[in-house]
Amino acid sequence: MAIHLELGRNGEDIAKQYLEQKGYKIMQQNWVYGRAEIDLIAFYEEKIIFVEVKTRRKTDHGEPEDFVDWKKEKQLALASSVYIERRKHQGEIRFDIIAIVYENKDLYKINHIEDAFWPD
Question: What is the third-level CATH fold of 3-113?
Fold first, then answer.
């Protein structure tokens, strides 16, 4: 597996464990619709939470969350609307970002940004 893919997979696993420890129920990991992938889909406080996980080794070129651009938001919005329709979810939803930055091989920092964006 390519190093960047392994880094991303590790980040998703860390984010999943982090959310579970906070009481979130993970419904799906790496849910795909078309060309869009939702890293984590969780249920918390009667809401479905769609989570984009960004993992980096350095922040020389910006924080991980800075790399969730309008194109990614649009893809997530499309995929989430299909997911909601298929689940027949009538309640609220939210889009979060979990940004993970490794300080060294075993030490990392997590930044959980709730309600990070709302796609048009």
Answer: Trna Endonuclease; Chain: A, domain 1 (3.40.1350)
